[in-house]
Amino acid sequence: MKEQILGVNVNMQSEEELMQLIDSDIRNGRKSRIVAINPEKVMMASKNSELMELLNESTYQIPDGIGISVASRLRGGEIKGRVTGIGMMDALLKLANKNSYRIFMYGAKKDTVELAAASIQGKYPKLVIAGMLDGYEKDMDKVARTINAAKPHILFVALGSPKQELFIRENMERLDVNIFQGVGGSFDVYSGTVKRAPVVFQKTGTEWLFRLVSQPSRIKRQIALPQFLFKALRAKDQGSL
Ligand code: UDP
For 65-87, how does the pLDDT look when each residue is reduced to its tens digit (9 = 90+)? Predict the structure, then answer.
């Protein structure tokens, strides 16, 4: 159940429905990968066919930025709300906690990933942190060996985009992992290095405004939003897959 927004596939299911599919992937030993879709990535992909392919070949494309659900709604589409990358990661952690699944955290700076792992373990005591590795190791064989030795069900890759998506594509086959999720700056949030927007911003879908005020350098990324909405409204590629 996917909808196309400027040529990029986006799942229409809610977070809960997606979690059921993912749990069944784990139980059946299937490999799947999750990528978060936001207006910035759609705009880049519309000018870069390789990136488009990279996003579209993922198993699940979740409607992350608020702009995606707004574009869908304005065009009469089925995507009702957002499923944020960090929200999905948290849902996966809950699932892992419930079933004592093993997770591996790969990415960010050494201190950050360690702090994030400690905070996650505190919040979810029954999941198993099978291993962690900072995102600055250059030897990819070593990265793959470390992950495989830990045998995780779920691998979170926090290298930023599109680096993390490329890493997942290039290594998915040799990695003995079920679920791959690219999570961008989420370890920074779990570690407390970067604060998530206060709940009022989260609830009203205005986290972008909070981020803009607290990190003004993000303006370049946010400027893409109105342009994206304009293009998405004019495009004719709407439809279900
Ligand atoms: N990062 C990394 N290795 C790299 C480049 C970046 O581990 O070679 C990490 C960086 O430390 C940060 C995250 O990737 O924790 C990128 O976060 P950002 O918010 O830029 O990602 P986005 O979700 O915006 O793509």
Answer: 889 999 999 888 999 889 999 99
Q: How far is the CA of 110 from the centre of ligand 1 (A)?
A: 12
- Ligand 1 centroid vs 228 CA: distance in angstroms? 23
What are the tens digits of pLDDT across the range 20-39? 999 999 999 999 999 999 99
Q: Whose CA is nearest to atom 10 of ligand 1?
A: 108
Q: Mean pLDDT over residues 37-44, rounded?
A: 92
Where does the chain show beta strands of DSSP type E? 2-5, 8-11, 32-37, 60-63, 102-107, 128-133, 154-158, 179-182
Q: In what order do the strands lie in the sheet with 102-107?
A: 60-63, 32-37, 179-182, 154-158, 102-107, 128-133
Token pair recorded at residue 97: 């906690």
Query: Atom 14 (ligand 1): residue with closest C-alpha?
Result: 159
The per-residue pLDDT for range 141-152, each reduced to its tens digit, is 999 999 999 999
For 188, the token pair is: 């920074």
- How crowded is residue 37: how many other Cβ atoms within 10 Å of its Cβ? 26
Give the span between the Cα atoms of 84 and 65, in whole angstroms: 7
- For residue 25, report the distance from its CA to the centre of ligand 1, in Å: 27
Q: CA-CA distance, 25 to 72, in Å (whole number)?
A: 27
pLDDT at 240: 44
Residues lining ligand 1, Cβ inside 6 A:
107-109, 135-136, 158-161, 163, 184-185, 187-188
Is the overall model pTM greater than 0.85, yes or no?
Answer: yes
CB 83 within 8 A of CB 205: no
